[in-house]
Amino acid sequence: MNFEFKVLGGDFVRAGNASSQVKKILKQLNVDASIIKRIVVALYEGEVNIVAHAYSGVIKVNIDTERILLMLDDSGPGIPDIGLAMQPGFSTASPIVREMGFGAGMGLPNIKDNSDEFSISSEVGKGTHLEILVNLKVT
Amino acid sequence: MTVADIVRELGLKVFSGSEGLNQEITGGYTSDLLSDVMGNAEAGMVWITLQTHINVMAIASLKELSAIILVKGFEPEVNTLQQSNNERIPILGTNLQAFEVTGKLYQLLNR
């Protein structure tokens, strides 16, 4: 099963809409509540990162009986130093975004903590690609 | 204890989302950092914050929080208020600062 959502950079009013729709879909599919919670946290953080940092992005959700795979692709400035970006507390968010309570440098660590497999790649001047995988079956 | 109970006990103002006043409260979380709440709050908690913009509702809904308490007389923005009504998650208000209302709520929930 595949779903796709578009995310617009800077559109904070609608930030979280894609996460909310994915949550509804997963509930309808009777996915375990603890798994939905993890996916919602990871996806919301990824969605907000696109809104806060990129020009636009696409979230693709692929669901099968074994796992849920989230792929987030954005067109944006990219991340020069991924190791640094992954450090809790590191952020390049603007002062306005920080005043809203975002940009605490907790987003990417939150995503990693809630994924079974997580990968991130980025090209400066082009954009960033995240893959978040959550297994449906407890191993 | 329900949201309506803490409204009465703490003398809170109900800005919106009154359809959710019967919701049970499991605890509380005090923070103004959205990712902190996203990562650490649990369903059924009351969220105490000074953030008034619509993104607090996205978080409250995704995390299935029972209510939001705005501190220091802050009021929700119009679209935040509308979303609170849509989601049936009450936004409450107090003139107390976060430390004080958190302490009072903590006492109430652990009475």
Q: How are the SSEs placed, and which strands pair?
A:
The complex is a heterodimer of chains A (139) and B (111).
Chain A: E1 2-8, H1 17-28, H2 33-53, E2 56-63, E3 67-75, H3 82-85, H4 95-99, H5 107-113, E4 117-123, E5 127-135
Helix pairs in contact in A: 1-2, 2-5
Chain B: H1 3-10, E1 13-16, E2 27-30, H2 34-40, E3 45-49, H3 55-62, E4 67-70, H4 78-87, E5 91-93, H5 98-109
CATH topology of chain B: Udp-n-acetylmuramoylalanyl-d-glutamate--2,6- Diaminopimelate Ligase, Chain: A, domain 1
User: What's the rounded overall pLDDT mean of chain B?
Assistant: 97
Under CATH, the homologous superfamily of chain A reads Histidine kinase-like ATPase, C-terminal domain
Q: Identify the CATH class of chain B.
A: Alpha Beta
Quote the CATH topology of chain A. Heat Shock Protein 90
- Major interchain interface with per-chain residue totals: A-B, 22 and 19 residues
Q: Termini distance of chain A?
A: 22 Å
Radius of gyration of chain B: 12 Å
Range of helix content of chain A: 25-40%
Name the CATH superfamily assignment of chain B: HprK N-terminal domain-like
Backbone structural class of chain A: alpha+beta
Number of helices of chain B: 5
